[in-house]
Amino acid sequence: MLKPPTSHPGARLREMFAQDIVTMPGVFNAISAVSATKAGASALYLSGAGLTNGTLGVPDIALATLTEFAQQAAYITAVTDLPVISDADTGFGESLNVMRTVIEMERAGLAGIHLEDQLSPKRCGHLDGKTVIAREDMVRKVRAAVDSKKDPAFIIVARTDARGVEGLENAIDRAKAYVDAGADAVFPEGLQSEEEFEAFRKGVAAPLMANMTEFGKTPIIPVSRFRDLGYQMVIFPMTAFRIMLKALDECYAKLIQTGTQAELLEKMRTRAELYDRIDYPAYDTKDKSWSV
Question: Which one of 14, 123, 135, 159 is the catalytic residue?
Fold first, then answer.
C-alpha cells in the first residue's frame, strides 16, 4: 500500500546492524521491493546496475542520472517500510554535485547511499580496467556528503574500488581516510578472498558493507561467514535481477516459438496472487471508505 516515507530510516538501519549483520537483497524497482519485503527482508539495497540495466537497458557505466536514481528510490520507499541503501555511483559529479545527490536521495526517503571513488564514467566493480580518483578528491566528496545530510542518521557509505587498481593495502589506507573524513561505513569492492575481507576488517574501524555478487572477483561467501568476519551489512545487488532476466528470456522464447502461453501457466503468479502481492483489495477498501 502506498505510504509516506518512513521516518528516520537511517537510524533504524544503524540499530539493526548494531545488533546483528543485516542481509540486504538487491532491488531495482518498486515491485521487486514489494516482493523482497513480503519475503521477509529486514532491509533493502537499490542496485545501480539493476536500475540502469532494467530502466534504460544499457550497461552500468554512469548513463543513468541523479534524477532517475532519486525517482526510483522514491517509488521504492513509497511501497516498503524497510530501510533502503542506494547506490549513488560517483555522486553524479564533483563535490557540489554530491551535495545535491545527498539532498535528493535523502528527500526520496532512503536510509543512506554509497559513493564510489572511481573516475566517471565508472565501470562495474568486478571488471578490469577501472580507474580511481585521487584520494584527496574522494575525501572532499565524503566531506561534502556528510555536510549535506539533513538527518544526522542518514548513512554515507564510502565505497573504494582501489583493490583492483592500487592493491589491498592502499584500498585499506583509502578507507581509513574516508572514515576520518566522516564516512559512516565503508564498502570495499572487488575483494578476492575471505582473507582479504578479514584484512579489511582488521584495518578499518568502521561498519563494513560486503558485496556478495555473482560471477565476479569475489567467491561465494555466506552471510554467516561475513558475520564471523565482523561485517555489518551484506548486499546481493543483482541476484534477483539475474534470475528474473533468465525467466524473461525463457518466457519470450517459448511464447514466440509456440504461439501460446499454455506451457507457461504453471510458472506464473496467478491473477489473484498478483493482486494479493500489490494489495489490490486494500486500495478498493480505502476508496470505498471515502464514499458518503
Answer: 159
Of 14, 106, 114, 178, catalytic: 114
Among candidate residues 60, 106, 117, 196, the one labeled active-site is 60
- Is residue 73 within 8 Å of residue 84, measured between CB atoms? yes
Q: What is the pLDDT of residues 99-158, one digit of tens each?
A: 999 999 999 999 999 999 998 877 676 767 779 999 999 999 999 999 999 999 999 999
Options 3.40.50.620, 3.20.20.60, 3.30.428.10, 3.30.450.40; CATH of 9-238: 3.20.20.60
- pTM higher than 0.85 for the full model? yes
Q: Cβ contacts of residue 93 below 8 Å, gap of 6+?
A: 120
H/E run at residue 119: none
H or E segment to which residue 156 belongs: strand 155-160
Q: Annotated catalytic residue: which of 126, 189, 196, 231? A: 189
State the span(s) of the chain assigned CATH 3.20.20.60. Answer: 9-238
116 has catalytic annotation: yes
